[in-house]
Design brief:
The structure is a homopentamer. By secondary structure, the first copy, chain A, is an alpha/beta fold. Helix content of chain A is 45%, strand content 19%. Chains A, B, C, D, E: It catalyses: 2 6,7-dimethyl-8-(1-D-ribityl)lumazine + H(+) = 5-amino-6-(D-ribitylamino)uracil + riboflavin.
């Protein structure tokens, strides 16, 4: 029974975690979900770490990043931290981040929901099928939240 | 009796720590505060580390960042350090940073004070209610210092 | 019998791993390949780490990076993680990354394929000839995916 | 008898260490100074580390950064390293850096000298008065090398 | 008999290592050189690490960085890795990097050769004279590859 840490923020403008949890439960019925909500993206890594220490096998996180340069540096700091956690624990952290300069309004909401669902599916495949579960799609231009672009 | 490290700087132009301490004491009456004041943002992480080693359970830090590109790189270095500390100790560091290019004069002072108070409240909730204490607000577009923007 | 970890993504638009594996098998017939496919570049480091823990002696990874500033920060986070892995394990991670702002369409595909092959060859030389295997080419302006530029 | 590591570079155009040592000796008469001069800013962190391992309790470093983007990335790498050292050892590293795009000629020299002296004073206060030694100045807009800007 | 790791790349357009080795052997006749050639700058850190583990006391590395923003991020990742290595081992890594946007053609070649020689000399002084060997030059505006600019 795999345990997945689901970490999201109050800063985000879409409840992406909810969407992802639905997908995870449908694809991996025996899954155990542990949720942790933090204020913003710079609080995500420690939440993942705590849930890893409680035994979670993988994590999926939902960040939301403003449009300024400062926001982008915060995103970079968070990304580095999630990299360090992954290589410390050897556990996947699927980082679902929405950037406010990608789109706006309803379109941005749609991107967020689709990205959350599609990355939850990616995580489900990694958890159930292992290292080569996604290999049939290698190099095929998959996108999450936007249409796939296909192979060149 | 939770102990919270409060770290601030002489570089900042608003005494944000004072505001945050009031909120923390009101929301978590049994709280123990340890304060550490340093010159600037690149001195914050080591102060947090020392207070964690003295037994603090969480930290809230108050940074103030100038408007130049160099200032932003200093912010990035500090942010990475606070991420590393959080994943080393498994303790929250709520990083309250004010950027001089956000606003100016009285407005910037107001942003700083409100951000300090609102993040102190976030920390109080995390300390008293745990991982799902903020979940009712997940994806609701909370902001600190500026008006909430709400969900999409 | 050296074991090489081959990590690629579903985000990429060219199956670079396939090209590299052909070269590796031809140059190092006794080689053992372990493949791991992940969604995107921020998932690469943990896959390498897992395969290193399963005994792989080196890795070759295939990243694909979009043209935006955000994409570049993700590239930076991944690059830092691969650096940290390399200095933790003392094992090479040959990082083959294609950036969408290098070229487009067929030309980009050609760059990707050539870069994968040429870096696979670099790895084969490091594995079979050791630290001075590439020394005859030191300072000679080798490029992968684009024509060599030669020494000044 | 506190020991302070003083690390500076041959790249800098002002002998800032000399100025800082005078202040430190006047403010903390029993102080022991260990000096280490390196070529440039990317050599500073290892010098601090060596002097920490020889028993120094804190460090003050003097960097000088050119005006190009590449220089700024070198500054960032150094800053991250000094952060990591501080959180590894729990010892302060007061990082006095002068950036060539701050001013030029005599003015830049004056900034460098004043910054060195003022940060030496900060360090002396931290060493002799501890975590709350600077608290009376918290949020008061102190600057080093330029005039203080005061609280908002 | 000090052992120095000399790490260079096939990407570089000048054989800088060769120049540096000549200087090192002349200045430190008993020196032992271990050379390691890698494809590009992101492969340098692991080579240094391996040679440190084989007993080298210090390293000098020769990077060559293209003119694009992506190249600069690769430079940053490498620089951070070399910082981490230095503070892990307490050994100097003199990082000699040439950036293609510094100059071009013959001039760039001259910069590369002079920088390699001058930094080899710096390393020789650190190895033979220790922490204060370069102190007489502190704050004197030394440059490597370009003319010294002198103190302000």
């Amino acid at each position: 029974m795999p345990c997945v840490a689901v970490v999201d923020t109050t800063f985000a403008r879409v409840n992406m975690a909810e969407e992802a949890i639905k997908v995870l439960k449908r694809k991996v019925p025996a899954i155990k979900i542990k949720r942790y909500t933090v204020p913003g993206i710079k609080d995500i890594a420690v939440a993942v770490k705590r849930l890893f220490d409680e035994g979670c096998d993988a994590a999926i996180t939902f960040g939301w990043v403003g449009p300024t340069q400062t926001d982008k540096y915060s995103y970079l700091a968070m990304s580095i931290a999630l990299q360090m956690l992954q290589i410390q624990y050897g556990k996947h952290v699927i980082d679902v981040t929405v950037h406010e300069d990608e789109a706006s309004g309803e379109k941005l909401k749609e991107v967020a929901i689709m990205r959350a669902r599609e990355h939850a599916l990616n995580l489900a495949i990694l958890l159930t099928k292992g290292p080569e579960g996604l290999t049939p799609l290698a190099g095929t231009g998959q996108r999450q939240g936007w249409p796939d672009v296909g192979p060149l």
